[in-house]
Design a protein that fits this description.
With 395 residues, this protein is of the alpha/beta class. The chain contains 16 helices and twelve strands. It has a five-stranded parallel beta sheet, sandwiched between helices. A four-stranded mixed beta sheet has the order 3-2-1-7. Strand 10, helix 16 and strand 11 form a beta-alpha-beta unit. The longest helix is centred in the middle third of the chain and has 31 residues. The N and C termini lie far apart (60 Å).
Length: 395
């Protein structure tokens, strides 16, 4: 970014030119420059002075504005157009705002691009400005700060879920931990971690959440989180388990290569969006599905989600279990199946449902999923066919 003025407004604010930090002799000068660079339009001197110094004494505020302009670093002042009546960003000014790069990254179509955007979010927009400026400035700042914070929250959550769904568990955890450094009591992120962990570790995570909420908010856990912890203690919270370890040795499927080839051919057919492997127990349906999921993962750029159902004995919890298999945190009034549909949407993903035979009543839910998510593929293992329209059976 040589030749550009780099403006850092997320977290502790500052300016850089040529890669070197620029000292600003006045904090008020820094805030007024930040205001102009974010507004991106000319502002009258009177209105700018009133926003930064308050409107109680216009004459004093205008005098303070004149002094503050003299305290701006030369590269910053060079990017502003200053007239007798107005101030704004100079035409053709070479300015790079971290806020812009952050927002662009969050909107990237790929996970790596989104991660690059998240790395820019170092903290709240214009951190500490509210303690050093007039109430008028704070009124202008807080809605913008909240929008940036909500964007960062949602992007961290989305990227963590995507990484987890793709099997990149370590980086998914790093993204969650990164947000918890910004908001140590975040219910959505502690709840997400609880969906990823075995029951004992999930309860330990709940204790971390409970303490953080008490310290930062002076509040008890939410009723939803408290109820969830109680279900974990009773053993009634559905536990998510991974499929058996991926098969890496070709000898694991000696004699079944023809089956693998046939199944992969079926999955390559766009019309095959529900493929059921069915047969008696013990014939290797789970291992075969696991191998297919591994071999075909590259064909599903938006991830492979695995949902093991053999220990789910309450059909009413099927949608909730499915949501957690996708790394989601079902809570509140939104039905879990709607949450899954919103998440999968138009993602080119593979959803593996292992041992569905005792939950065949979930067939209508699967039909709804396929109808609402046009690029989703379902791979099911079951002792019986699902009997859903469009089902391809492999016995």
């Amino acid at each position: 970014m040589e030749g550009f003025l780099q403006v850092e407004l997320l977290g502790h604010p500052g300016f850089r030119a040529g890669g070197q930090p620029l000292a600003c002799a006045s904090r008020k000068a820094l805030w007024l420059a930040a205001y102009l660079l974010l507004e991106r339009k000319p502002v009258t001197r009177a209105s700018l002075a009133a926003v930064v110094w308050g409107s109680d004494s216009p004459r004093h505020a205008l005098g303070s504005l004149r002094v503050a302009l003299t305290k701006l670093p030369a590269p910053v002042l060079a990017c502003l157009e200053v007239t007798r009546e107005t101030l704004g960003v100079a035409p053709g000014a070479r300015v790079k705002l971290d806020v812009d790069a952050f927002m662009e990254g969050c909107a990237a179509p790929d996970v790596e691009g989104q991660l690059a955007g998240l790395a820019i979010y170092r903290g709240e927009l214009m951190q500490s400005a509210e303690t050093e400026t007039a109430p008028e400035f704070v009124d202008w700042l807080l809605p913008r700060r909240e929008r940036a914070r909500q964007l960062a929250h949602d992007a961290h959550l989305r990227v963590a879920q995507q990484l987890y769904a793709r099997g990149d568990r370590a980086r998914a955890r790093e993204v969650v931990d990164a947000w918890l450094r910004h908001d140590s009591a975040s219910e959505s992120f502690h709840g997400l971690l609880m969906t990823w962990l075995p029951s004992d570790q999930a309860l330990a995570q709940y204790e971390v959440y409970r303490r953080a909420r008490a310290v930062t908010l002076g509040a008890a856990p939410s009723p939803e989180m408290a109820a969830r912890a109680e279900r974990l203690r009773r053993g009634s919270e559905p536990a998510m388990r991974e499929m058996p370890a991926r098969l890496t040795a070709a000898t694991s499927f000696i004699g079944r290569n023809d089956e693998l080839a046939e199944l992969r051919g079926l999955l390559a057919d766009p019309s095959c969006r529900l493929l059921t492997l069915h047969g008696m127990g013990g014939v290797g349906k789970t291992r075969l599905a696991s191998a297919i999921a591994e071999h075909e993962s590259a064909e599903f750029p938006d991830g492979v989600h695995v949902c093991a159902l053999d220990e789910l004995h309450a059909p009413a919890l099927f949608a909730q279990t499915l949501a957690r298999a996708c790394g989601l945190h079902p809570s509140g009034s939104q039905p879990p199946l709607d949450l899954v549909i919103s998440f999968l949407g138009d993602r080119a993903a593979l959803l593996v449902l292992d041992n569905l035979e005792h939950l065949l009543a979930a067939g209508p839910d699967l039909a709804l999923l396929l109808a609402a998510c046009p690029t989703l593929t379902l791979l099911v293992t079951s002792r019986a066919a699902i009997r859903v329209s469009g089902e391809h059976e492999f016995a």
